[in-house]
Automatic annotation (TrEMBL):
It catalyses: ATP-dependent breakage, passage and rejoining of double-stranded DNA. It is found in: Mitochondrion; Plastid, Chloroplast. This is DNA topoisomerase (ATP-hydrolyzing). The keyword DNA-binding applies. It is an enzyme of class 5 (isomerase). The lineage of its organism: Eukaryota, Viridiplantae, Streptophyta, Embryophyta, Tracheophyta.
Amino acid sequence: MHVLAMMVSIGKSLQELLEYMPGPDFPTGGLIMGNLGILAAYRTGRGRIVVRGKADIELLDSKTKRSAVIIKEVPYQTNKSSLVEKIAELVESKTLEGINDIRDESDRSGMRVVIELKRGADPSIVLNNLYRLTALQSSFNCNMVGILDGQPKQMGLKELLQAFLEFRCSVVERRARYKLSQAQDRRHIVEGIVVGLDNLDRVIDIIKDAKGNAAASAGLKEEFNLSDKQADAVLDISLRRLNLLERKKFVDESASLMEQISKLTELLSSQKNILQLIEREALELKNKFSSPRRSILDDSDGGLLEDIDIIPNEEMLLAFSEKGYVKRMKPSTFNLQNRGTIGKSVGKLRVNDAMSDFIVCRSHDHVLYFSDRGIVYSAYAYKIPESSRTAAGTPLIQIISLSEGERITSIVPVSEFAEDQFLVMLTVNGYIKKVSLNYFSAIRSTGIIAIQLVPGDELKWVRCCTNDDLVAMASQNGMVILSSCDIIRALSRNTRGAIAMRLKEGDKMASMDIIPAPRHTDLDKTAEDSISYDKGGSGPWLLFISENGYGKRVPLSSFKQSPLNRVGLIGYKFSSEDRLVAVFVVGFSLTEDGESDEQVVLVSQSGTVNRIKVRDISIQSRYASGVILMRLEHAGKIQSASLISASAEEAAELLPGMQSEEATTNAGTAEGISMAS
């Protein structure tokens, strides 16, 4: 208490007071979420404290990977039976999903409510839903009112502590004064008794000669200069207490009273002494009645549950159209098909609309939307409404704030904003730059500048990379440059960048892809004439896809690394009616026979989708014309292509530390695969 008084007197902050008074401790334990409510109560006298029950996640069966949520503590004033009944009602009404069984296994050793989950259910999501829908998370309103000057008053912690200390000082002072008065009165009487015992014979004579009690009292007062109380006390002494032993007791009592009076006088002489006594008494109470703290303070999130806390982080497909419509679908929507098939429609499209992009990401990813004007927007992937394959989708302008006439040209899903990650940006006219991914971790709703553009240029491709990765760029005429990301200067957002490729007249950039560091080798030392183009050739390869639905794989070692601002090497020879749509680096995920385990998703202008195995696409030389991948008699031209891994887990092991977009690469047509707002 004295320590707190000193802190109040020197003006310590509430955060420092929290070290001594961290918050309430509830009898039933639980977790107190955050300290914002506690701080509000300490600051103003009124606050809201969120308390969660204590729950653990246990694995019931390692083979089936079935788990259970074990509730061990519930919030204060929460009835366990009512909580179990409420959970059962929510499961029966299908408001709460993923629960298979509920059992109450509580006994004398403690509470244990077992909530067995269904196979495949995410325990964290189920637990967050329990917090959101049941009394497993409860809130308590704090109203700190004290009686000050005889009137009730709401006070903050400092004011309340000051009032409490003043009250305690007043109580201790009044108690000390009362004890001092009692001790002084008793000592006064004892002194009179000792005087009487010291003159016992004369006292007896006065009493014998007196005619009554009043005369005896008056005689004693006159003879020994005693007060009325002292004289009465002498007269009240019984004969059995006239011995020497009793006299010694009175003398000792007088000395003890004198010592007590001295201590009480010293206590009342200083405010510091009173505060020290208050502190000692508080420590005595603590030592006598102390018990371990039951409620645990959790400074994580204050108990606020957002949408991301109750949405599973599942893989999803995002489909975008040129007119700015987007929809989210499950990966099982499209089944695997063979090369050369017509494919399955991605859904109903509006008049004069066409598919523009098709990417794979996870629900909790930040999706970065880059526009043709060099502006970047951000939104969580789960913000896009889930739709069926045949649905038209949701206007993208309802999710991000696009300006009139602005089009989204590149979409990058980001799981984590790592410090060693960069975004490589490439424009149609061949300007390239690298920006740290951290610059895009906080994007306002109206977007921020990603790249500075000159009139007539557009931002088209954005990819995630590290300094150890390689970047492959291709033009519409099939020219390819393979360069290291390390030689690309890291610039700020509001800059233009450097020239990536010397484009011939009429040529423009067509695509860009990243080769992760764990997959590329020293390609400069490999001779082109030593490459074999049979099915047994080992990856990685560059996968070329043309507008007319043709494609091929070319070994990556066929292309030497070169600096930027070069013409590049021929990667594909096209006819006059065909040109390049996309280039991907494949061979990251391999089967036992050394072939690619990846798949490519092709989307035509009419919205038809075809998903085929990369291993079915022939390995050819840089000058070959390729093989047909998708028949387009009634579907126009290839509008976009996306590369996905057939085994996400194996890809994650092969590419440690890479972002999800490195296993999922997207590209658009040379004319500008984009979406109109």
